[in-house]
Amino acid sequence: MFQPLRLNALLTAVVAALVVLGLPLLGVGSYVLHVMILIMIFAIFAVAYNLVTGYLGLKTFGHHAFFGLGAYGSALISIHLGIGAWASLWIGAALAAAFGLFIGLPILRIKSMAHVAVVTLAFAEIVRLSCSNLKGLTRGELGLWGIPAFQALHLPLVGEVVFSPANKIGYYYLAALLLGMTLLATAVILRSKIGLAILAIRDGEDAAESLGVNLTRIKLGVFAVSAFMVGVAGAFYAHYVGILTPSAAIGADLMILVIAMVLVGGLGTFAGPLVGAVLLTSSAESLRFLDQYRLLVYGGLIVLIVLFAPRGLASLRLPGRRVPERPA
Amino acid sequence: MAEERRDDGIPGQALTPLVEVSGLSVEFGGIAAVHELTFAVSRCEIVALMGPNGAGKTTTFHLIAGARQPGSGRIMFDGRDLAGLRPDARCRLGVARTFQITQPFQELSVTENVMVGAMMHHKRLPDARAAARRYVELVGLADKADAPAKGLSTGQRKRLELARAIATRPKLLLMDEVTGGIDQKSIPGMIELVRRLREQGLTVIMIEHNMRVIGEVADRAIFMNRGVKIAEGTPADIARHPDVIDLYLGDAAHG
Ligand SMILES: Nc1ncnc2c1ncn2[C@@H]1O[C@H](COP(=O)(O)OP(=O)(O)OP(=O)(O)O)[C@@H](O)[C@H]1O
Ligand SMILES: [Mg+2]
């Protein structure tokens, strides 16, 4: 609901932020940092997807296109135009947002959910196939490599921060910063007049429109902002892993994974996408020992959670804690 | 009454009707829901729109509010042709409506529901919230102000519809069976509210079945059947009209 921040929510957020910021100081290994970085990339993606699907109620299945556009956009710009990753990341994200507006316009007039799903999915397939086939530019499935990393930074107090596969701390804090910015932007949007309009649209488009809410403007704007955020995640990913293939950066399984995260965590809840990203990324990693049975167990886990917590884990209350009674 | 309000000070403006519907028609699957409908409503007038089920009353509201596009005909509002304008644009011009099948924003509280309408005139959310509270009280939902809309009874949902609509500070209010589902003893309060709104300069078209309500507040009534206007006049005239008695009052008076 559209309500003042509750104290517990604020406390939880502060504690979570402290844990994330403090983790590298505990001397954890490079692998743990890598998994955490993946979690944060997915979290940005999931938060942005939740904004459109969970809050605005627009069931899209093509958001991986924006991840790919951000990733390839930023990578190609930094390779060919000699612009550093710090700047190309935002250009890549802006490219994703521009495509978001472009695809947003036609789908917003479609009332049927199924059609929205098919059109957005088809759009993402077109983006993926284009990247596969423009081999001169992207090298297709052979992989685009040689993507420059972020240039080292000289920060006051901290000293030199390097971004290399060997030293992931720089990437870790940059991912945390980008995720923090995404969460902040989302919170600001949701708690503004636009946020109220978004929730009204989700609950009843016709009523919202009759009360003066401009559906096209709100939906397009939110769609573009969401595409921008996913573009940021994609661009960061490109400069982090240093190699892109269309199937990894624009594959439909990426979208499916993010949808699973949002459903498991709680569609239309603020913390849901974060919970989902943590749980599904870390369990995917920790189930690696199961080898070919991994996906089976993983899928079973998702089914169980969705069955027993249909509104997502973030909506569950700890036993013993009183649930604030809502008059029904 | 009508002459008292000249809100824009343009001479003669008060004499032109606020709403002028002419030759309005729309059909669904080849069946005319509204056919060649023509009527006008003056500023500060309260007009009752009557007729049996399926007469085309709600459809007429949809057309005026912009939720449906007419097949032919024209709607002039406050000196403007409304053709092609979306519902939100019409709302900004001053057309507000309630839904017969209530459409509360389920996950929002009662006050937040009304804030959606109040946002239009308030830049800051706290101002919109304060204004929304006043409208919530005005319709008698103060005790439910912070309750989620999904728990409201039918009558409460009708009041919520009304509060949301007037929160947009309309010039024209389209009320679709607002007294339906409201308990009998709150009806006088409703009548009083509509009267007060009119005194503040609001023009009202109300779809209404309750003859007592119509008799007490409506200046005029329009009676429709199968999409066609068959009678128009004072509520007393309509109640005496032979076609109306045939079609409607015959059983409604007993039911
Ligand atoms: N979306 C639609 N598709 C098809 N037919 C429709 C649609 N909306 C309304 N109709 C038909 O148009 C006619 C007029 O309906 P409308 O809802 O305007 O009646 P009404 O006068 O409001 O009746 P009631 O008193 O029952 O609310 C009815 O025959 C109805 O079945
Ligand atoms: Mg009706």
From TrEMBL, chain A:
GO terms for cellular component: plasma membrane. GO terms for molecular function: branched-chain amino acid transmembrane transporter activity. The chain crosses the membrane at residues 7-25, 31-52, 64-83, 89-108, 142-163, 169-190, 220-242, 254-281, 293-313. It is found in: Cell membrane. Keywords: Cell membrane, Membrane, Transmembrane, Transmembrane helix. The keyword Membrane applies. It comes from the Bacteria. The keyword DNA-binding does not apply. It is a multi-pass membrane protein. Pfam families: BPD_transp_2 (PF02653). This is Branched-chain amino acid ABC transporter permease. It comes from Reyranella soli. The lineage of its organism: Bacteria, Pseudomonadati, Pseudomonadota, Alphaproteobacteria, Hyphomicrobiales.
